[in-house]
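User: Sequence in, structure out. Go.
Assistant: Echoing your sequence, followed by the structure tokens.
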Amino acid sequence: MVRIKKILKRMTIIIVSILVLIGIAAFFVLQQPQFGKAPSGERLERIKQSPNYKDGKFQNRFHTPMLPEGYTMAGEVYRTFFKKNPRKFPTDSIPSVKTDLLNLSKNENVLIWFGHSSYFMQIDGKRFLIDPDLSGSASPLPFGASAFKGTDIYTADDIPEIDYLLISHDHFDHVDYKTLMALKPKIKNIICGLGVGEHFEYWGFDVQKIIEKDWDETVNIDENYFIHTATAKHGSGRFKTTDNTLWMSFIIEAPTFKVYIGGDSGYGIHFAEIGKKFGSFDLAILDNGQYGQEEFATIHMSPKFALQATKDLNAKRLFPVHSSKFVLSRHPWDEPLVRITKLSKETQTPLVTPMIGETVYLNDSSQTFTEWWKGIN
């Protein structure tokens, strides 16, 4: 009995020691700059004045449970990352083309997609970059969420000077530390949600370039040229804390073109409200991928909800994003595009589905695109 007690005591000491070492290691890992910094000081005081900040965190305006009733986060992690899910990753390389962004005329209204939710736009003489991730990974650590073969053809060297960097929220697949640090000299202004600016200030960006906004605010960037902020149904956080920074969508209202940038958002009545407020859009860019349960619209959208949101917004065309580069859910890699293409034909919703790097001519509503994902295993 005495011997058993000694063995149990020794095992307890070993287990506790291992847990302490893991805790210490985790603490030092989370001090790495890519994890950013939580809002503090005057920035935190401003956040506390927001009507969207309650009980120590930002809140969605509509009921937004992370998971359907009966599902647990542990179960979802297991089903996504450990259970066999056919065709989550393409075995073939994703086709792409490389447009020379450095030599584009600023008079052209164009969009170039980098995969997932990253893209470059020129509209009426202004250059925009949205949620760039060009590092080949959507993870802050050396492992996990690597980009599909063929999708990572652009680097920071390929990007021209950017008038406005728009950040929808601070999740790692939308705020990529390596990409942003490489792009720092090229970024003239940053527009983001309340609190997100703390990361950029921590990373050495000029505070004068950071424009932090709440929902339903407007930045006048030129004569008859506006960027409006709007709500989204999502969340935020970079491991240390959750929902301490604000997620959002954007409306670029240029003199000749109006686009809705949805960021990440589940389906909700906010799309109809935004459509009513702004009348109509020439293009809606909406989350369509990395969704979970088909009938449960939480913080991402499946194809049928993305199409419904397009209708609610009174948008003439839909560019579905948040797919084709990273695995963050368990559906087949090409399912979002396959399904939304089929459904768009039934609903007669014009789609914009370029290859990565292909030039989208925003003023050409008749431009067509190949179903480039067909035949890729």
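User: And one key feature?
Assistant: Residues 20-29 have pLDDT under 50 and may be disordered.
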